[in-house]
C-alpha cells in the first residue's frame, strides 16, 4: 500500500467506481482503462497518432502468449511495409536522377 500512497486520485472513484478501493492496483488499472475507453479527442492529429502507438506498445508489453506474438507480427508487417515503400521510393528517386 505504501507504493500507491503518492498515486494521483482518480475522480472515477467518486463517480463511477464508488465502493471500490482507490488504492487497489487492479481498481486503478480499471479506472485507467475506463479513462482510455471514454477519451473524446480527435484521432486524426499527429499527437493522437503517436499517443495511440504508445498505447499499443504498452498494451502489447502487458500481453503474453499468442497476443504478444500477434502484436509482434503486426509490428513486423508494418516495418516490412515501411522498408518496401522506402526501397521503392529510393529506387524511383535514383531512376529520376539518372535521367
Task: Walk me through the structure.
By secondary structure, the chain is mainly α. Helix content is 68%, strand content 0%. It contains four helices and no strands. The N and C termini lie far apart (70 Å).
Secondary-structure blueprint:
Layout lengths: L11 H4 L9 H13 L8 H17 L3 H33 L1
Approximately what portion of the residues adopt beta-strand conformation? under 5%
Shape: elongated
**Beta strand count:** 0
Q: What class do helices, strands and sheet pairing give?
A: mainly alpha
N/C terminus separation:
70 Å
Number of helices: 4
Low-confidence stretches: none
Oligomer: single chain
The Rg value, from CA coordinates, equals 21 Å
The biggest beta sheet is recorded as: none
- Chain-averaged pLDDT: 82
- Which series of helices and strands comes N to C? HHHH
The percent of residues in helical segments reads: 55-70%
Amino acid at each position: 500500500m505504501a507504493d500507491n500512497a503518492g498515486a494521483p486520485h482518480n475522480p472515477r472513484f467518486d463517480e463511477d467506481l464508488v465502493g471500490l478501493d482507490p488504492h487497489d492496483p487492479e481498481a486503478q488499472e480499471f479506472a485507467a482503462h475506463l479513462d482510455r475507453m471514454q477519451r473524446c479527442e480527435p484521432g486524426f492529429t499527429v499527437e493522437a497518432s503517436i499517443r495511440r502507438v504508445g498505447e499499443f506498445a504498452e498494451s502489447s508489453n502487458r500481453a503474453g502468449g499468442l497476443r504478444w506474438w500477434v502484436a509482434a507480427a503486426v509490428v513486423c508487417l508494418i516495418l516490412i511495409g515501411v522498408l518496401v515503400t522506402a526501397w521503392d521510393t529510393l529506387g524511383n528517386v535514383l531512376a529520376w536522377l539518372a535521367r
